[in-house]
Amino acid sequence: MTKLVGSYYLLNTLPIWATVGFLLGMLRMIVLGRDVKEGQPYDVARSSYLGEYGLALFTVIAVTILQRGGIHIPPWLGWMENYTIQVWMMCIISVLCDIVCVFTIGSRSGHLMDVYHDVVVCPILLYLSITLVPIVWCNGTTVEKVTVSSLFLLWIVSVIFDHVHDRINQRRWLQKKFGVIFPARRFS
């Protein structure tokens, strides 16, 4: 039995409904925040409402595997038992997402919930996806492995779709497609 530390310990200890509630709340906060701050509850990027929900389901599958018990982690994945390395991974992922936010915010609407997405949602989902892959691949059933691979592919395809169809800047897409008028304020 592998000693679980850090995020693995937390995900193994919390009831699955708490993990689901946290992930759904974090993802739906974007629509609620846009409704409150911008006057429109919208989320038209498929990578957000399909892909990121796929990554959340990926997390729930991995948590189910963790909570089944008897987790085996090969020795070459020893970093999973090191809390410090997990913290460093989260920090590195957060910094990378923040850098992407800074360089791409101008190509998107640049409002508060876009920043929330880049600084909170993306780092958490990427961290969980990256660190939970070994749990699934070393301990999951064939169905779980295929499902997780499909969900990750769904996220990749939805990101590509959004870029090709200019849905990444959701406000601009809504203005062009449906004539929705938004206030010009940033961080409103």
Describe the model.
This protein has helices at residues 6-13, 16-38, 46-68, 83-104, 112-139, 142-164, 170-178. With 188 residues, it is mostly helical. Helix 2 (16-38) packs antiparallel against helix 5 (112-139) and helix 3 (46-68) packs parallel to helix 5 (112-139).
Query: Sheet with the most strands?
Result: none
Low-confidence stretches: none
Structural class, judged by helices and strands?
mainly alpha
Radius of gyration: 18 Å
Strand proportion? under 5%
Please tally the β strands and state the result. 0
Q: Cα distance, first to last residue?
A: 50 Å
What do the pLDDT scores average to? 89
Count of individual helical segments: 7
Shape field: elongated
- List SSEs in N-to-C order: HHHHHHH
Helix content: over 70%
Key phrases:
7 helices; 188 residues; mainly alpha
Summarize this structure briefly:
This protein is an all-alpha fold. The protein contains seven helices and no strands. The N and C termini lie far apart (50 Å).
Task: Please specify the SSE layout and strand pairing.
Blueprint: H1 6-13, H2 16-38, H3 46-68, H4 83-104, H5 112-139, H6 142-164, H7 170-178
Helix pairs in contact: 1-3, 2-3, 2-5, 3-5, 3-6, 4-5
